[in-house]
Amino acid sequence: MPVGLPLPKRDELSPVAGLDLFSVSAGIRKSGRRDLLLMRLVEGSAVAGVFTQNAFCAAPVQVCRGHLASGGPIRALLINTGCANAGTGAAGLEDARTSCAWVAEVCGLHPSQVLPFSTGVILERLPMERLRAGIELASCSGPSDWLDAAHSIMTTDTQPKAISRRVRLSTGQITITGISKGAGMIRPNMATMLGFVATDARLSREDLHGLLLSSVDDSFNAITVDGDTSTNDSLIGIATGASGLDVSRGTADWETFAVEWLAVCQDLAQAIVRDGEGATKFMTIDVVGATSRVEARQVAYAVAHSPLVKTAFFASDPNLGRILAAIGYSGVEGLDVSKVSVELNGVLVAERGGRATSYREEDGQSVMKEEEITVRIALGRGASQARVWTCDLSHDYVSINADYRS
Amino acid sequence: MPVGLPLPKRDELSPVAGLDLFSVSAGIRKSGRRDLLLMRLVEGSAVAGVFTQNAFCAAPVQVCRGHLASGGPIRALLINTGCANAGTGAAGLEDARTSCAWVAEVCGLHPSQVLPFSTGVILERLPMERLRAGIELASCSGPSDWLDAAHSIMTTDTQPKAISRRVRLSTGQITITGISKGAGMIRPNMATMLGFVATDARLSREDLHGLLLSSVDDSFNAITVDGDTSTNDSLIGIATGASGLDVSRGTADWETFAVEWLAVCQDLAQAIVRDGEGATKFMTIDVVGATSRVEARQVAYAVAHSPLVKTAFFASDPNLGRILAAIGYSGVEGLDVSKVSVELNGVLVAERGGRATSYREEDGQSVMKEEEITVRIALGRGASQARVWTCDLSHDYVSINADYRS
After folding, report:
1. Where are the alpha helices (DSSP H) in B227-383?
2. Does position A406 have pLDDT exceeding 60, yes or no?
3. Do residues B209 and B159 share a domain?
4. pLDDT band at A402 (very low <50, low <70, confident <90, very high)
5. What average pLDDT is seen over chain B?
6. Domain at A207, CATH number
7. Alpha-carbon dihedral of residues B371, B374, B375, B377, nearest 10 degrees?
8. Catalytic site includes residue B192
9. How many domains does chain B have?
10. With a cut of 0.90, is the ipTM above it?
11. Options B155, B156, B192, B229, the catalytic residue
12. Chosen from B52, B119, B121, B228 to mutate, greatest number of chain A CBs within 10 A
């Protein structure tokens, strides 16, 4: 069961003018579920992307980078689940290119106008015949809505992740709608596996790319489930411009738009953690008083990745010395532990390098029972801070990942 | 059940002349089990130690460092389990000092001649009354043997860890006997929680310290269970000299002795992983072809710490793309994945950045079913290498750590 994550409601997900969705069941891995999504964009759409920093990045990620850099303009996106097409070498690259050519064929485009995305098992080839049949089926299907689209990119996700905002600008109203997926192998580094955020506002590709880079840092790059950076992480921003309303940098509405865009990204990123594999708790790790943002993140991730901290949260056990241990080994040079304090949902647990004198086990116990917990770590070294979202480590995490391919 | 770790046999653990053991049940945390160990050393013994690099290092670690640096000569060691005396601030430091004073009192020593060690729950104070009673009980008990000693330092360990070697030198025969403990919060950084290796050979404190530093790197510093570096890690070397045989650096027997000493350290370190919390598999991660040892270790630890890799081993599922993903995000600058290959117990799984053409799923399946698996990763970048030992991530790991304090 995801933590504090309501199911998206079909009628609350606004369509994005200029963007059509076609989601079908292609039987890539299992039959009878939606596993292929085709997005078609109106002429004039701007598309930007940020991708995994994993050296073993997947074939589709390599093709996306190439098409965004020198191909385009992008008019279609193809997303399959069930197979990641990663660790597949030259043959996998060829498969990804072939899938773009097939989409181009049915849509009347050049292959370089298509972006391919895959998610699922690594080290296995795409089932190309089923993929081709799926593309043909999608091309002659009626349009799907965003909820169907969110369903069709899921892997171990227990529920679809989608959010929509209607934004009032000085010149009229625009829409931002996004979907994301991912529950395991989640420790994005520049983006997450997979996120698509689209708007009918008009902005240039450069502005869209800049916005994506700045918003990813405080959304998808601030989450972790298991510390495993995926080979396929991709976050794509789409601006169809179909509303006719311009929000480019320098316009009166740029700031309003950027704030709403970040909010959508944060909700989608948090949704991934709330539905993290086996998650029963949602934790916000706030580190303040660091000498730099990098240092603050380093401490936050050490705590967020510690299996001992995560299992203590799973057990609702205030075994909070484990948090101190993680801060201690996070690698902060010359950390003066006598200046460190730790609070959980406002309960002061540790101060001056030891247990807070005011701390009572009952208070710790009662905080640990809550489903959403904010751990605030003050380092007492400087003025920088960082926030990271994560979940606990439960039996279900082990079950899900031990049985993933079966 | 530990992996490939036979129970130490009482009659195979040789006493170390010049060192007496007294192990009792002090009821520190639970009653009815041995939880306090007093070691007394003959006059003239050399003692050296290496300790955790965790900034939140425990009070006893701080006291040990002080007594080794400016106190001594060390004549007694006190070890308790059930409480780590870490994250306990100034009061915890005072408790550690007081326990040294009590040992000094019953043994007729100065407090600075005593080293204190604690292991167990962090952020809780030592139960000083029970500790004092335990020290008094130990001081008037008959001597214990090494198997009792190994029992009395256990926490979540499922079995005692002890090893003994009789070493023939050019001048006669000496003994090296050691014990270790630890099953969780295991990712030692300079030493592990806790190891004690003793010999009746004679060598200077400087030589002993040098030997400890060189052997720890290929033994205790090459293991990980969960990536959590403990606050209390301590490895202590003791040379009583009671055999009268000198093995100092420069003597004919130095090399022989150093090799045997390393072997004892490696066996004790591996024992910790074989009995790692919830372990069902023992993995050796060999990384070769790196540009430096640091780089090789970085890759080995990324693989060894990946929860996805660890759960795949638990499930005996050859979902081996997860190993590529971990290599990919390990942070090696400019890694050319087309030069990377991965073998499991001699089965080539990946080469040239993708699945090996010779690889068959049945071979992967059959290797993954084995209890001991060597993962060999060739980076194709240079001539450096590293080896790390680890275990899998099972349901029992979660159970043990969710229930640890209950």
Report:
1. 254-274, 293-305, 307-314, 321-329, 361-368
2. no
3. yes
4. confident
5. 90
6. 3.60.70.12
7. 180
8. yes
9. 2
10. no
11. B192
12. B228
Task: Look at phi and psi of residue B390 and say left if phi exceeds 0, alpha if psi is from -120 to 50, else beta.
Answer: beta
Report the range of poorest mean pLDDT among A20-34, A181-195, B90-104, B135-149: A181-195
- Quote the Cα angle for B389-B392-B394, to 5°: 155
Contact criterion met (CB < 8 Å) for B393 and A398: yes
CB A232 within 8 A of CB A194: yes
Could you tell me if residue B4 is inside a domain? no
Two structure tokens written together for B120 = 């167990």
Closest Cα to residue A167, out of A200, A145, A195?
A200
A5 within domain boundaries: no
Residue with tokens 């705590």: A303
**A238 CB-side CA count, 13 A:** 31
The length of chain B, given as a count of residues:
406
Residue A336 counted as domain residue: yes
Do A206 and A351 lie in a common domain?
Answer: no
Q: Determine which helix (DSSP H) or strand (DSSP E) holds A359, and give its type and residue range.
A: none
Domain boundary, last residue among A274, A307, A336: A274
- Bridge partners, residue A343, by sequence: A348, A376
The active-site residue out of A88, A155, A156, A192 is A192
Residues B297 and B267 both lie in one domain: no
What pLDDT, on the 0 to 100 scale, is given for residue A41? 94
- How many alpha carbons lie under 13 Å from residue B275 in its C-beta half-sphere? 21
- Whole-model pTM: value is 0.83
Identity of the residue in B91, B231, B325 whose CB atom sits nearest the CB atom of A228 = B325
Percent of chain B with pLDDT over 70: 98
- Tell me, what CATH number does A360's domain have? 3.10.20.340
Q: Assess A329–B contact: CB distance below 8 Å, yes or no.
A: yes
Query: Which domain, by its residues, includes B291?
Result: 282-402
Cβ pair B184:A329 closer than 8 A: no
* pLDDT score recorded for residue B121: 86
Of A13-17, A155-159, B226-230, B350-354, which gets the smallest average pLDDT?
Answer: B226-230
As a whole number of angstroms, the distance between CA B388 and CA B380 comes to 19
Contact at CB, A226 and B308, closer than 8 angstroms: yes
Residue B356, domain member (yes or no): yes
What is the average per-residue pLDDT within A389-394?
Answer: 93
Q: Are residues A93 and A115 in the same domain?
A: yes
User: What token pair was written down for A373?
Assistant: 């917990």
Dihedral angle sign, alpha carbons of residues B212, B215, B217, B220: negative
Nearest to B321 among A123, A315, A353 (CB): A123
Question: Span B115-141, mean pLDDT?
Answer: 94
What's the confidence (pLDDT) of residue A404?
64
pLDDT score at A405: 62
